[in-house]
C-alpha cells in the first residue's frame, strides 16, 4: 500500500481571559511553510505584547525569507529563526527603557510530511492527541517543574506554589537562547495543541483530552477550550492553536 501524503489544517483562538486588562499572548502560523507558533509575553505595561508579537512576526518573516531555498533542513531553520527572534527582542529591550526586561515564551511546531518537530522555550505547551489519548510533548521551563523533576516538590505543591509563575527560560531576556527540540513522527488523525498557560492552569489534562475528543471543526474545538478556561476562572490570557494531520 502506498503511503498517503499527510496534509495539515489549523485553527487558533486567543482570548484576554476574565481578569487581565490586556492580552499578551500571540499566535501565528504558515500552513505553506509548515510552521505554527504560540507565544506568551511578559513585562511591564505593554512590553509583553511587544515581545510576543515580535517573536511570532520575526520567526515567520525569517522562515518566509529562507524557506524553499533548500539550504537548510526545516528544524534547523526554525531553530535559527527562534534565535534570531531572541536577538531582535533582546536588542529592542536594550534600546528602550519602557521595554526593558520584556520576554516571551515560545512553543512551535514545524511539520514536513510525516516528520514533525516541536520547539520550546518557557512554559507554554505542546500536546498531541492520538488514538483519543492526550500526551504532553514539551517540558515546562519553570522553577516548580524543575523542582518536581528533581523530586523536591510534588505536582500538587507545584500547582499551589507562589513561585509557579517563575520561568527559567524565555525569549528576549538574554543575548542567546537554546530551545528544546523534540522530533516526532506524525500520523494521519494526530491532533496537536499548542497553548499558553492560561489554558493549562485552568483545565486538567484529562479535561483537555475529553474536550478535544469530539467531532467538531478545529475552530469550534479552540472556542470550546477557551470557553472552558474562562468558565474555570479565566485568570490569565488564553491561547489555543490546533493542528490536525489528515
Ligand atoms: Ca500566561
Describe this structure in words.
The protein is α+β, with helices and mostly antiparallel strands and 246 residues long. It has a single domain, classed as 4-Layer Sandwich (Phosphatase 2c, domain 1), CATH 3.60.40.10. The protein has 7 helices and 11 strands. Strands 2, 3, 4, 5, 6 and 9 form a 6-stranded antiparallel β-sheet that branches. The longest helix is centred in the middle third of the chain and has 22 residues, at 74-95. It starts with 7 loop residues before the first strand and ends with a strand. The model has no long low-confidence stretch (mean pLDDT 94). The site of calcium ion has 6 residues, from helix 5.
Briefly, what is this?
With 246 residues, this protein is an alpha+beta fold.
Q: What coarse outline follows from CA principal-axis ratios?
A: globular
What hetero molecules are bound to the protein chains? calcium ion
CATH architecture annotation: 4-Layer Sandwich
SS summary, helix count: 7
Q: Secondary-structure element order, as H and E? A: EEEHHEEEEEHHEEHHHE
Assign the CATH topology. Phosphatase 2c, domain 1
Beta content comes to 25-35%
Low-confidence stretches: none
> What structural class do you assign from the helix and strand content?
alpha+beta
Q: What would you give as the CATH superfamily?
A: PPM-type phosphatase domain
N→C terminal distance: 17 Å
